[in-house]
Amino acid sequence: MDSLENSWQTLLENLKVRDLDLEREEKRQQQHDELRRAYAAQANSFQDWLQNTKEKIAAGRGTLEEQLDLIKMKQEEIKKKRMALKELEELSAHLETGMIFDNKYTKYSTVTLAQEWDHLSEFSRRMENTVKCQISSQNMTGVGEDDLKEFTLMFKHFDKDRSGRLDHPEFKACLRALGFDLPVPAEGEVDAVFEAILDNVDGDRDGQVRLEEYMQFMISRMTDNVKDTNELTEAFKALTDGGNKPCITGAELYAAMPQEQAKYCIDRMEKYADEEGNPVPGGLNYKDFTKNVFKPGGHATASITGF
Fold it and tell me: CA-based, 20 to 30 A from 115: which of 73, 145, 235, 241?
């Protein structure tokens, strides 16, 4: 009986110890779950903000100037959100310290969110350059805002995943929808016409055409159709200081045009000299340049965008 009594008491003591262990483990699991929920709430909210911000930037609503203002405002918001990402990284480090590596409440890690933040920051810069290019092209070449909106809307129609990129089949379908006469090659044959277009818009052949590449291509096609030298000459004249100078400077071109377009013009413009043959410091002869990019029949031999 003494042996049985001792065994019984030992069992009761072990049960108490086990109960305490279970209580401590339950509290630990509850604390871990609270940490998981806290991280998940912030991570999911951050991902929603990333997606919503990208959609607003890509929406392209309002005038080009309004779109540019929105993009700049969102860029400031993106910079400030870096602090929220830092807080998430600190919370994630706290989870790892507690050996908490699973989280059923979210699928977003800090690495994923940081990459998405970087992508959004880069996307906003690309969109800013795209809109600036559209504004410059509209001011300089007369490409209508309605045309630019049509190009953008058509791109978005074929950009099903809202990535800001079109793969080659999507891009070809987009061009056909815009009225491009692209032949259907026989099986096994190379589509030479489409390949020539890809040389302009996807030179590195990564299989993707970005919105800004697409817009530059469409604008270049519009500017290829400038009707006469007077139209182009007046466009250059409008960019000069006062809007009526007989020559233009490289600084004026860079201020009004994307870098590639400005460089294309500067490289091909001769230095300007006045009627007495005296060179004008920094002056470039845009009138002779305009004549040189047109054939005798009055059609442009090259786009002023350099494509």
Answer: 73
Residue 86 sits in a domain whose CATH number is 1.20.58.60
Among 56, 165, 51, CA closest to 116: 51
In a domain, 63, yes or no: yes
For residue 251, the SS3 value is: helix
pTM: 0.56
CATH number at residue 260: 1.10.238.10
Domain count, the chain: 3
3-state secondary structure of 55: helix
Q: What are phi and psi of 271, to 5 degrees?
A: -70, 145
Query: Which residue from 91, 61, 89, 90 is spatially nearest to 74, judged by alpha carbons?
Result: 61
Amino acid, res. 21: D
Instruction: Characterize the bridge pairing of strands 165-167 and 208-210.
Output: antiparallel
159 vs 181: which has the higher pLDDT: 159
The reported pLDDT for the residue numbered 224 is: 58
Which ranges of 159-283 does DSSP label H, i.e. alpha helix? 168-177, 192-201, 211-223, 229-239, 250-256, 259-268
Say if CB 226 and CB 141 are below 8 A apart.
yes
Residue 285 belongs to a domain: yes
305 and 216 Cβ atoms separated by less than 8 Å = yes
Q: Are residues 233 and 116 part of one domain?
A: no
Query: Residue 172 is part of which domain span?
Result: 143-223
The number of residues making up the chain comes to 307
C-alpha gyration radius of the chain = 31
**What's the pLDDT score for residue 205?**
83
196, 217: one domain: yes
pLDDT band at 232; cut points 50, 70, 90: confident
**Which amino acid type is present at position 125?**
R
What's the CA dihedral at 36, 40, 43, 47 to 10 degrees?
A: 160
Q: How crowded is residue 162: how many other Cβ atoms within 10 Å of its Cβ? A: 11
250-253 long-range contacts, CB within 8 A, separation 24+: 250/282, 250/284, 251/282, 253/284
